[in-house]
Amino acid sequence: MKKTLLLGLFTLGFLAVSCQLNPAQQPAGEQQPAEQQQQPAQQPAEEQKPAEQPKSEAKPAQTTAMVDAEALAKAKGCYACHAVDAKKVGPSYKDVAKKYAGKADAVDYLAGKIKNGGVGVWGNVPMPAQNVTDEEAKKLAEWVLSLK
Asked: pTM of this prediction?
């Protein structure tokens, strides 16, 4: 039992460190080739037209904020242990949203768990403290709670 727990802790520690590496720090096999990182060439000036969206297709500010929060979750490596609809190492985001739905302090509570880590709420596998600012933790918590 102790060996299994220690192996689990070691694995989580490794995931936490490896998920927070910058692309420049990742092993060479995981980096995108230079060709994929370049921006596509722009059209000549006479062919450029301003991008216009009909007002009915414009995204509301809240939707844009949620897309930004999801991108933040991907950038911070949250998807290494969590998924939107399925349990991985940790609970699915939708399960977390259901558990804390309607609780007044849910955003602050989850932001604290994201920033400082925790164990015991979803089982014996600990969630390590994450390298996020208070603002990022709050944004991630609001996003998780918005998933239903």
From this structure: 0.59
